[in-house]
Amino acid sequence: GPARPQAWRVNVVLSGLLEKCFPDEGRVCRLVGQERSLQRQQQPEAALLRCHQALDMAPGDISLLLLRAELYLTMKNYEQALQDASAICQNDPLLTKDSFFLLNQNPSEKSDVIRNTNCSVLYFILSLHQEADKAVLESILPIAPNTGLKRQFPNDLKDAHDVTDTPGKVPKKGQLFFEPVTTPCGHTFCLKCLERCLDHAPHCPLCKEKLSELLASRNFNITVLAEELIFRYLSDELSDRKRIYDEEMTELSNLTRDVPIFVCDMAFPTVPCPLHVFEPCYWLMIRRCMETGTKRFGMCLSAEHAGISEYCCMLEIKGVRTFPDGSSVGDAIGISRFRVLSLRHRDGYNTADIEYLEDEKAEGPECEELTALHDVVYQQSMSWFTSLPDNMREQILSHFGLMPDRGPELQSNPSGPTWSWSILAALPLERKAQLAILGMTSLKERLLAIRRILVIITHKMNSRQELVNSRERNN
Ligand SMILES: [Zn+2]
Ligand SMILES: [Zn+2]
């Protein structure tokens, strides 16, 4: 018969639904299942009994006759086998054993069988997970008793998983499936609910089966049939669910209110920032940034009393790669500075209401003065950078990228010239000093601060060199 591959297992939600829609066929299907396992256990007589029972319920069913014919063959009862085989051919001379084998591959033939032999519906429908099977579905659904179906669906096509061990706000149990995916163990979840559960434990939330293979590929395909059933029979519930989803996406896209915050390291505007994300709450945060399309989050330092630093940098994700265990690495770049107004939590990570920082514009003679100061500090910075030992310079370059040029328009960027942030990131400074400069909205003040730091550092380097020189003289 058309043996299912070993790895191919039944979708629990869908098969439950179908058994309710087709109760008689369900009973037949169970008998067939028992027949197969009895045959595997070398109990042909008991298996034959199940065949008889199934055929009593669905007389003349081709797939059952075929099954019994095969069983007779293994029992070397050739006469009975031939009788069943000829009954099959009388019913449908075109449906030979060979074509029956093909049914698993060819959707159009699948739908033929379903139309002709009602009994096979349940058996074949369970394999319908592919986009190509949609047409087959069209031909099946009218057979289903419509009234019972509509009553039953809302209870079946809902989250049943328990995610109480997930920190933060738990996804609502009993919500209609949204983007349903089915695990290899046959359990169905909303894509996002499953991802969140898998962030914390690599097994099925319902049956606890290990899902290492699914995680290795992270290939969460939408279960087309379940989605189609929801679309057809629960369109009102679906549009409610979609509305909630859209509202959540809008909320998550807000870049001034409840902005996602990654408490990790110092970051500067225009400076590249490599990402290494090892904590599950931040895997969720990064996924959401990508899903909403903002790709942005705030990078902050932790502060003892306030929770996070007052001044932070908005980062934009340039690329991100997720590993089987859920951790991810990526590249981001500093976009702008902001001040934290208030701090909250969402699903295990911080969020903040923020106010963006922009430089005050200098005009007229002030602007000329600023340009002169800028050019001096730029030259000082570059000569400090080129005076560094090769290994230090290479380290800085590999971490922050090339040292930017002077740039065209001095005040075009509300965060100030790019090179000033690269120098600030490279200078051996304490976090506290870096934060103070990050919060300055006067370019003049920042340039003066950089100049002071350069003077101190150059002085230190020179005195160290003098010490070396005097030692050499004394030797
Ligand atoms: Zn869900
Ligand atoms: Zn499971």
Automatic annotation (TrEMBL):
One of its GO terms (molecular function) is ubiquitin protein ligase activity. The keyword Ligase does not apply. One of its GO terms (cellular component) is cytoplasm. Residues 181-208 form the RING-type domain. CDD domains: RING-HC_LONFs_rpt2. Coiled coil: none annotated. Residues 249-458 form the Lon N-terminal domain. Keywords: Metal-binding, Zinc, Zinc-finger. Pfam families: LON_substr_bdg (PF02190), zf-C3HC4_2 (PF13923). This is LON peptidase N-terminal domain and RING finger protein 2. It comes from Pteropus alecto (Black flying fox).
